[in-house]
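Retry 2 of 3 after timeout on previous attempt. Resubmitting structure tokens to design endpoint.
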């Protein structure tokens, strides 16, 4: 039998004829994107289906032309979502068959179902959360100690982004000298995982008190790039406490569950840091006021004690002289009273005897005249003797309390009191000097001028550092006339070898971006 050979074009033409009835039909397909790439405004990929073991059981080429791709992106944007076409993403496409003799059979995408993409992302997110929670990783980083006043901060975000500017402006406005270590990272897009992990590794060796991962607001699908298991596990085992400020008021990222603490916005995270310093300053002010009150109270007590001591020293000799004079007056009065009583007693006795003599019979008068005379003489002698003894006693008392002797005793007492006063005065001034030096030392430490001077120095240092950061800011470099060139994959082009002819490139300038096509490459031989 003779072999019959058909031209390849006849075969492809026949295939096209057989497929013609099905090409006009549209149908929904649910599959996973593989080897996706965007070129010339269109998106090319393979749609695959895998079994439970991950083996591919079906595969077909797929194309989203520029017009349909733009329409689908607008549809997702209206649902507050971004169209994610990364490898491994499950999608739901409305397709039709297309056949080309050169490229074969493929699917042409006409529309897409946002609910499929969102549902798959939520399912994947729940699976990651369940695995991490089962392993007990939700509490690991929460156990990391956060200093009361974290001053050295590791910052992971995109440099120059709204999240970066809001965070830095809030800290700067507070006036406190925060020290920021920026690890520039992409927080959305296919490079998010690699970029954030690299930033965490870079901050590990630095002496930071706290690490913050920040990004601004965006669509729900923006969170998809941070709902990353590798980043979550890295944070769970990270040696430093990690705070997050993802920038979503309603949705919660997986990183929020893993982090030491999470905030709805970067500004809220900055405000919490500032609030810690404000609270500590308020406590220090209250403690300072309490210390001043206590010292003022103690000083008043010591001053009152000193005043009483001085008054006592001044009034002591005067009181002693008054007491001594009072005692002398009392003794003199008592002596006069005793003499007066004795004289009264003797006069009464004489009167009684005189009456007795008058009552005796006249016959006895003569017999007793001599006896009476003798008695009178005896009485006179006794009275004279008594008066003499009383005079001697009075003279002795007078000599005892005469002025010179009193003054000598007073001088001795005054000298003793003066010595005691000098000792008390020296002791008081020693205590007063010690407390005055202590108060002066405390006052010197609390001087407002020294505190303000230190704050001014810190503010000057911070301004210098901010000026340095602003000078090396990529946005500043762009304003000088330089530009950044990115490939279709979003990577930075550093050499002409990184791009090919006919390939689209993005040129980033200070005020926007340009999309252009490479028509030729010229090697610089200098």
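Retry 2 succeeded. Sequence:
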């Amino acid at each position: 039998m003779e072999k019959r050979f058909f031209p390849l074009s006849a075969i492809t033409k026949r295939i096209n004829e057989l497929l013609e009835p099905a090409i006009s039909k549209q149908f929904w397909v649910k599959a996973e994107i593989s080897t996706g790439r965007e070129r010339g405004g269109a998106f090319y990929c393979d749609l695959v289906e895998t079994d439970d073991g991950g083996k591919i059981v079906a595969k077909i080429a797929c194309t989203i032309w520029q017009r349909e791709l733009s329409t689908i992106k607008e549809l997702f944007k209206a649902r507050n979502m971004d169209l994610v076409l990364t490898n491994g993403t499950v999608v739901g496409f409305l397709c039709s068959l297309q056949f080309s003799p050169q490229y074969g059979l493929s699917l042409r995408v006409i529309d897409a179902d946002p609910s499929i993409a969102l549902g798959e992302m939520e399912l994947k997110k729940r699976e990651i959360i369940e695995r991490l929670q089962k392993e007990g990783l939700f509490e690991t980083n929460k156990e990391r100690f956060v200093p009361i006043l974290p001053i050295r901060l590791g910052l992971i975000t995109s440099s120059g982004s709204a999240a970066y500017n809001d965070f830095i402006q809030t800290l700067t406005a507070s006036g406190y000298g925060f020290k920021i270590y920026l690890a520039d990272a992409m927080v959305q897009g296919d490079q998010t995982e690699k970029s954030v992990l690299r930033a965490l590794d870079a901050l590990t060796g630095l002496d930071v008190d706290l690490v913050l991962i920040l990004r601004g607001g965006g669509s729900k699908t923006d969170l998809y790039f941070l709902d990353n298991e590798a980043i979550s596990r890295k944070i769970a085992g990270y040696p430093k406490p990690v705070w997050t400020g993802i920038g979503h008021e309603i949705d919660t990222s997986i990183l929020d569950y893993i982090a030491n603490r999470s905030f709805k916005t970067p500004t809220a995270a900055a405000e919490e840091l500032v609030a810690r310093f404000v609270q500590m300053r308020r406590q220090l002010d209250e403690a300072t006021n309490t210390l001043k009150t206590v010292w003022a109270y103690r000083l008043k007590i010591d001053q009152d004690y000193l005043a009483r001591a001085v008054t006592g020293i001044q009034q002591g000799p005067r009181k002693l002289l008054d007491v001594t004079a009072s005692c002398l007056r009392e003794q003199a009065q008592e002596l006069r009273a005793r003499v007066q009583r004795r004289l009264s007693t003797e006069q009464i006795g004489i009167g009684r005897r005189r009456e007795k003599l008058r009552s005796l019979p006249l016959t006895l008068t003569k017999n007793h005249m001599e006896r009476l005379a003798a008695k009178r003489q005896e009485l006179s002698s006794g009275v004279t003797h008594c008066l003499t003894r009383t005079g001697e006693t009075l003279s002795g008392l007078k000599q005892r309390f005469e002025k010179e002797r009193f003054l000598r005793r007073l001088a001795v007492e005054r000298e003793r009191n003066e010595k005691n006063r000098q000792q008390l005065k020296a002791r008081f001034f020693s205590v007063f000097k010690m407390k005055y030096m202590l108060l002066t030392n405390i006052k010197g430490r609390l001087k407002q001028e020294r505190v303000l001077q230190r704050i001014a120095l810190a503010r000057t240092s911070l301004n210098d550092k901010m000026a340095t950061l602003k000078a090396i800011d990529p946005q500043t470099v762009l304003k000088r006339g330089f530009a950044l060139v990115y490939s279709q994959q979003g990577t930075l082009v550093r050499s002409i070898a990184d791009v090919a002819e006919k390939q689209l490139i993005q040129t980033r300038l200070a005020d926007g971006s340009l999309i252009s096509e490479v028509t030729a490459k010229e090697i610089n031989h200098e």
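Attempt log closed. The chain is about 55% helix and 15% strand.
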